[in-house]
Design brief:
Order of helices and strands: HHEEHHHHEHHEEHHH
Keywords: DNA-binding, Repressor, Transcription, Transcription regulation
Strand content: under 5%
Oligomer: single chain
Protein name: MerR family DNA-binding transcriptional regulator
Strand order of the largest sheet: 3-5-4
Pfam family, one: MerR
GO molecular function, one term: DNA binding
Number of helices: 11
Helix content: 55-70%
Structural class: mainly alpha
Largest sheet: 3 strands, antiparallel
């Protein structure tokens, strides 16, 4: 298959195809007697896997997996994928915990319990298992807010402030995408005093994670196809 035909099949440019080859994401092309690149079913298997894995696992993981497969280190490739699957599962656990906590708040929404207790940045970091530096960064980029202690200027958080922390921490380990950027922006724009909005956002995050899980399953199918192709071609 000629470069332009393979590129057209996967809706990419020939320069992108050459770039994948240069980075080792796909095997080197065969050469015809006249020196032209020629691609085979092996390259189709690699590109199918790459295009399925990149949105589901990110380019960093996808690159590591494809390089491992080309090195015939199948087990290393599979364990790297498993690590990402575990991260997604942990994100879902956080999302479910966040939704439970927010739903529980409805029992005392109309009194001062939610906002009467203040935490320092260190206390909030420990309670929500997020580094203090991350909380400061989130505030600096406008994702969350805090109150300043009038005596020393230190950050203080009450339950209303921490609702956004509950939500945003769910996205920390997810693959960077336009969707995750949009979700973070939606969280930043929430009225932190509106509990119902926060609950709806938590439910929406769970739905997003369900979609991400299905996307990973699709990628795993293509990864299996590639591994089968590589193993059979070597036998």
């Amino acid at each position: 298959m000629r470069p332009k035909d393979l590129a057209r099949k996967f809706s990419i440019s020939t320069s992108t195809l050459r770039n994948y080859e240069a980075k080792g994401l796909i095997p080197s092309a065969q050469r015809t007697a006249s020196g032209y690149r020629h691609y085979t079913d092996k390259h189709i298997a690699y590109l199918s896997c790459l295009q399925a894995m990149a949105p589901a696992f990110g380019m960093e993981v996808t690159t590591e997996v494809l390089l491992a497969i080309q090195s015939k280190d199948i087990d290393e490739a599979l364990w790297r994928v498993k690590e990402s699957e575990i991260q997604l599962y942990k994100s879902r656990q956080l999302a479910m915990q966040s939704l439970r906590e927010l739903e529980a708040e409805k029992n005392f929404e109309n009194n001062d319990q939610a906002d009467s207790h203040w935490m320092t940045v260190g206390e909030a970091a420990a309670a929500y298992e997020v580094p203090a530096t991350t909380l400061r960064h989130w505030e600096n980029v406008g994702l969350i807010t805090s109150k300043r202690d009038p005596n020393n200027g230190y950050r203080l958080y009450n339950r209303s402030h921490l609702r956004k922390v509950l939500l945003i921490r769910t996205l920390r380990s997810l693959v960077y995408s336009e969707a995750t950027v949009r979700l973070k922006q939606e969280i930043a724009e929430l009225d932190e005093h509106n509990l119902e909005q926060a609950c709806k956002m938590a439910a929406g995050l769970l739905e997003y994670l369900n979609g991400a899980n299905r996307e990973q399953l699709k990628a795993l199918y293509h990864l299996y196809q590639l591994i089968e192709f590589v193993l059979n071609s070597d036998s």
